[in-house]
Structure formats: C-alpha cells, structure tokens
Amino acid sequence: MPFTANRAFKAAPRMFVGAKDMHYLTEDGRQVLDGTSGLWCVNAGHCRPKIVAAIQKQAAAMDYSPAFQMGHPSAFRVAERLANMAPGDIDHVFYTNSGSEAVDTALKIALAYHRARGEGHRNVFVGRERGYHGAGFGGISVGGIPANRKAFGSLLPRVDHLQQTCNLREAAFSRGQPAWGAHLADELETRIIPLHDASNIAAVIVEPLAGSAGVLVPPKGYLERLRKICDTYGLLLIFDEVITGFGRTGPCFAADAVGVVPDMITIAKGITNGTVPMGAVLVRRGIYDAVVNSAPPGMVELFHGYTYSGHPLATAAAEASLDTFEEEELFKRSQELAPYFEQAIHSLREMPHVIDIRNMGLVAGIELESKPGKPSERAFRTFLKCYDKGVLIRTTGDIIALSPPLIISKAQIDELVGALGDALRELGRD
Ligand SMILES: Cc1ncc(COP(=O)(O)O)c(C=O)c1O
Fold first, then answer.
1. How far apart are CA 312 and CA 318, in angstroms?
2. What does residue 269 show for φ and ψ, rounded to 5 degrees?
3. Which of 44, 156, 169, 281 has a CA-to-CA distance to 330 between 20 and 30 Å?
4. Ligand 1 in contact with 211 (CB < 6 A)?
5. Is the CB of 132 under 6 A from ligand 1?
6. What are the CA-CA distances from residue 417 to residues 138, 159, 377, 425 (Å)?
7. Where does the pLDDT of residue 35 fall: very low under 50, low under 70, confident under 90, or very high at 90 and above?
8. How confident is the model over 17-29, as pLDDT tens digits?
9. Contact between residue 166 and residue 216 where contact means Cβ atoms under 8 Å apart
C-alpha cells in the first residue's frame, strides 16, 4: 500500500465502501465527514451527479482513443478551458495521468525549451526543502522530504534546494500568508546562482503553498521575489499546483492568489474532482513555440507522452468537473468561507501540544509538538481518534492537515474542528 504502514493497517484496516458529497461510508456503516477532500482532490465533494454521468456516458461512447498522432475533441476542449483559466500567457496544455508525471513532464519541457534555444547546458534544477513533487525520480530529486529521498538517491544529475519557509520562532500562528520570510527567496540569488552559475540553471520548482510536508504557507512577497530573480537570470519558474489548483487557496490557482505568473503550472487531482486519474502541465506560449518550432516540419517535436495522456474518460470527467466548479461558483465559495474556516481553526490554539496553526484559503495545518523519541505518534493518534469520531483528517509527521471539499458548510466546519478539538483534548498532556 502506498505511503502506508502496511502491517499496522492490515492488523486493523480502515475501509471505505461509499461516498456522497461531504461524507464517506465505512464498511461497518458509519458516515465519516471528509476533512481532506480524499487526498486533496475531491474539491466539489463526492459522487457529484454531473461528473458521474459524464464518465458513464463517455465509457459507453468511446472508451479509448490513441494518444499519439491522434486526438479527440474533448481533450482539446478541456485544454482550451484550462488555457483560459490559467494566468498570463500560459495557454498550452500537456496531459499526464498524475501529479508525479506532470512534474517529470514539466522538468523535461524545461530542458527541451533551453535546448531548443541553444542553451542545452542549462540542466540544474532548484527545488526546496520540504517540497513534495510526487514519487517519480524527477519529483523526489527536486523534492525535499528526507524520507522520500533517503532510500532512492537523486537520479537527476544536478539539483540544489532552497531552504524551506516555515519558521515557528518568527511566524507561528500567522493567519494567512506570514509577514515574515520574503527574504528567504534571496538565497536563490546569493547562494545558488553564484554556486552553479545562472547559465547552467534550467528551472526553479516550488509548490506555491507546500501541502504534503505540512501546509507551509508562502510568506508575503516570497513568490514575487522568486519570480523577479528568475526573470533576471533567465530561469524558468514552475509552480506545482497539484494540491493548490482548483480553488484550494481561493482563486482557481494559487498563482492568482499571490498575483505571480509562473512559466509552467503542474496540475492533477482536482482537475477531475479526483474521479479519473489525470494531470497536466500548463505552459506559457513562448515555451511551446520554442520547443515546437525547433523541430523540422512534420516531425515529432517533444519525444514524451503517455498511453493515457488525455484519456477520454479523464477529459470527460474534467469537463464535467470544470462545469460543476463554475455552475456552483465553488472558487468564490472557497474565498467566502476562508475567514470562517480561519477563525474556527485558530480556536484550537490553546489545545494540548499545539505549537502552530497555519492557514490559507480552505487549507490549514495544525502542528503538534512531537513526543520525545516518538515523532508522528501524537498526530497519528489524533487521526485515529478523529476517525472513530466520524471525521477524516490527514497527518504528516506531527502536523495535521485539513483541506475539506469546497462545498463544506459552516456547520460542518464546526463539526470538523469540534471533533479535532475533542481528540486533542482526549490526547491530553500525554
Ligand atoms: C504538490 C504535489 N505535486 C505532485 C504530487 C504527486 O501527485 P500524484 O500523487 O498524483 O502523482 C502531489 C501529491 O500529493 C503533490 O501534492
């Protein structure tokens, strides 16, 4: 089982057998409130009728269409819509089947772009400590979560990492983007660029809000500074929005929330509301043009792709998901609910062991002090207690992450935070 304590799970399994709107149904017939949108992906809630119907209809009409040298209209319709939704001149789309593949694809496009411009020596990638960019070798190389790297090494030849941006001494219990920390971006210019030389660096990849390592909210001005430095030295800036895409931080993309246009955006998860695996890389026009125009007419321009890129079931699910987001104005709803969610989450400040609470849009992280010698134990026990109380939360180390579907009601926010508060209280001073 992926990222799971296999032996512990198999000794005491937790099985879901159904889902509807804000709830899962367990094998023993209990309703569980989904505080995590599955794995950050079910942004419109579960089993939404329009999305279910679209997938069913597509499965009966055309089950598969070859991805290479053939196309189908739905893939182009979705690309058109994504291009319209993306910020700035990001207006081309390359499909993958997951976030990990989207990240590896973006890294490859960065190399292809520089090579097409006669700068093939640009092959250094810059990630960030505590970054998560999926489980592929590209993603773990630029990623910065030690456990995900230690057994596998780094197969990308030249990678460096910015320092992470979360500082409990300076910015604990910030509401929204912390005021402290913009200067951390300067490390790109003062250490990394001098060390490798700008002429060798292909791209910088960051999650605008780091999710998997425990909800690290970008300091005010930090992403803006990264953008400026990348522009000065000709480095591409990639935002990995696999988690933050589709309304999680308020607007469609976190790029919109902070007003920064990156050169590429990786997406997955929410694009199909979690129903059918799908990912994509959204690319600025200049990158597309450089790569495509570098090959002789009639020849394949980018030797990359997947059998299931733009799978008809995935694109049908994406069209219906985008319809649902639009019809129900879910991004607006996310922005409107954010202050209430923030207030509710920060009410947990006085609970035992809580050393930080962070939030942006409809995402929050609650950090617990680790038990000496037993990291992760407190948060995982809280997770089990919440599950018993009928609420699904997620933990990473000793950080609890909440990212409910954007359809959550205020009463359900109270229920989620209430159950979490009870669980933390029961954990007591232990
Ligand atoms: C920022 C980010 N990038 C990439 C991924 C990998 O996506 P997937 O699990 O679909 O491969 C994730 C997954 O959580 C993610 O959060």
1. 10
2. 45, -95
3. 281
4. yes
5. yes
6. 37, 40, 20, 12
7. very high
8. 999 999 999 999 9
9. yes
For residue 271, which of 332, 339, 321, 311 has the smallest C-alpha distance? 321
340-386 tens-digit pLDDT: 999 999 999 999 999 999 999 999 999 999 999 999 999 999 999 99
- Taking CA atoms, 330 is separated from 43, 166, 342, in Å, by 9, 29, 18
| C-beta of 104 in contact with ligand 1 (< 6 A) | no
**Residue 36 CB less than 6 A away from ligand 1:** no
Cβ–Cβ < 8 Å for 106, 281: yes
CB 133 less than 6 A from any atom of ligand 1: yes
Q: Name the DSSP letter for residue 46.
A: B
Q: 339 is written with which tokens?
A: 């202050």
Query: Given the CA of residue 103, which atom of ligand 1 is nearest to it?
Result: 4
Query: What is each CA distance from 96 to 278, 290, 318, 398, in whole angstroms?
Result: 6, 21, 13, 32
pLDDT at 27: 96
